[in-house]
């Protein structure tokens, strides 16, 4: 499971990377949920994780 990503050469949590980018866009948020911020194939990582977990439960 993905827990860290590389942003500009630094390895960090999904949430920290999301917060850095949000601050650059002018948001003054103190926290960010990286699992909801980052997308893969037009789906938030949180949604994808839940969908895949539900698929495994159905099998």
Textual characterization of the structure:
8% of the residues are buried. This protein has three helices and four strands, in the order ββααββα. It has one domain (4-58). The two termini are 20 Å apart. A two-stranded antiparallel ribbon has the order 1-2. A two-stranded antiparallel ribbon has the order 3-4. β3 and β4 form a beta hairpin. It is an alpha+beta fold. Helices cover 49% and strands 20% of the residues. It has helices at residues 14-24, 34-37, 45-58; strands spanning 4-7, 10-13, 39-40, 43-44.
Strand content: 15-25%
Spans with pLDDT under 50 lasting ≥5 residues? none
What is the number of beta strands?
4
The main sheet comes to: 2 strands, antiparallel
Kindly report the spatial arrangement of strands forming the biggest sheet: 1-2
Sequence of secondary-structure elements: EEHHEEH
Provide the helix percentage: 40-55%
Number of helices: 3
Question: pLDDT average, as an integer?
Answer: 92
Instruction: Please tell me what the overall shape is.
Output: elongated
Number of domains: 1
């Amino acid at each position: 499971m993905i827990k860290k990503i590389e942003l500009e050469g630094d390895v960090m949590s999904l949430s920290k990377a999301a917060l850095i980018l949000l601050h650059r866009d002018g948001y003054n948020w103190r926290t960010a949920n990286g699992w909801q911020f980052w997308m893969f194939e037009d789906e938030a990582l949180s949604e994808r994780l839940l969908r895949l977990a539900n698929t495994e439960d159905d099998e």
